[in-house]
């Protein structure tokens, strides 16, 4: 360790240069990690935040909430089996507007039982109740000028809805969510389409499934999230780029140490000749690699965390401590593996040829 620090202090300009490169590259990697999580939550946070473990959907739904359709008999069977452990859920993308001349805004309705466990926590106003034609919006709608107490209009049915509260981090398919009672939702759907039937898309379930119900299948929350259209393709693409950048950044450290140690073969030969054991030389190299990689990654993480506080609320960015820690650990591990080429090169140095003057 002491030998490693002495060498780094002596050639501080070279090591500072690679440290700056590591910080910049890892800043980009961690920022991209935040975008991956942010975009993922923009697709799924309304479902991900639900205190549900599983969802009961129709057996032909392909795990997609908006495609599922439970008949009254099927949902009655669900209620009889699970009691208060199951609650209805409907998901419908539509438009709403503030006033007759207001611009139409995309929204995803979540129709729920206000007395059930899916009722969202509110950050402003009051919780959703069974009161007719009331709605709780994601706080993204605040940026459009909508406030608690305002009256908005469902564009399809022209039914007026009173905003009673705001919740946060409720998105579905990159569209802000809105919560209403199942009765209000059915009134809207019947006004827009008189042929609408009183079915539900599915049921959210707490706990484990207990046996099969004809015409239905039980899926985990993770499976339902992955089935949201566009979720997997989006996540896989950006995640692949993220890990590619991690590997490239680690390779940069490996190449740097390989080149810089090529220039020090005489010094390594002399150290071997005077009896410095190979394990000490290996320890020096690994200590330098870990120091550069870990410190650069931690500085980059701190810079990214600081910058995230200044990003606009509408930007899909979310730093998850567990994911950042995984990226940092993987980066340090790959950097150490990349340095093994340097270790192998140093191990092949023959002190006799160095002392004898045969060094090329």
From TrEMBL:
<feature type="transmembrane region" description="Helical">
    <location>
        <begin position="240"/>
        <end position="260"/>
    </location>
</feature>
<keyword id="KW-0813">Transport</keyword>
<keyword id="KW-0472">Membrane</keyword>
<keyword id="KW-1003">Cell membrane</keyword>
<feature type="transmembrane region" description="Helical">
    <location>
        <begin position="281"/>
        <end position="304"/>
    </location>
</feature>
<keyword id="KW-0812">Transmembrane</keyword>
<protein>
    <recommendedName>
        <fullName>Putative hemin transport system permease protein HrtB</fullName>
    </recommendedName>
</protein>
<feature type="transmembrane region" description="Helical">
    <location>
        <begin position="324"/>
        <end position="344"/>
    </location>
</feature>
<keyword id="KW-1133">Transmembrane helix</keyword>
<feature type="transmembrane region" description="Helical">
    <location>
        <begin position="15"/>
        <end position="36"/>
    </location>
</feature>
<comment type="similarity">
    <text>Belongs to the ABC-4 integral membrane protein family. HrtB subfamily.</text>
</comment>
<comment type="function">
    <text>Part of the ABC transporter complex hrt involved in hemin import. Responsible for the translocation of the substrate across the membrane.</text>
</comment>
<comment type="subunit">
    <text>The complex is composed of two ATP-binding proteins (HrtA), two transmembrane proteins (HrtB) and a solute-binding protein.</text>
</comment>
<feature type="domain" description="ABC3 transporter permease C-terminal">
    <location>
        <begin position="244"/>
        <end position="351"/>
    </location>
</feature>
<dbReference type="Pfam" id="PF02687">
    <property type="entry name" value="FtsX"/>
</dbReference>
<dbReference type="InterPro" id="IPR003838">
    <property type="entry name" value="ABC3_permease_C"/>
</dbReference>
<dbReference type="InterPro" id="IPR051125">
    <property type="entry name" value="ABC-4/HrtB_transporter"/>
</dbReference>
<dbReference type="GO" id="GO:0005886">
    <property type="term" value="C:plasma membrane"/>
</dbReference>
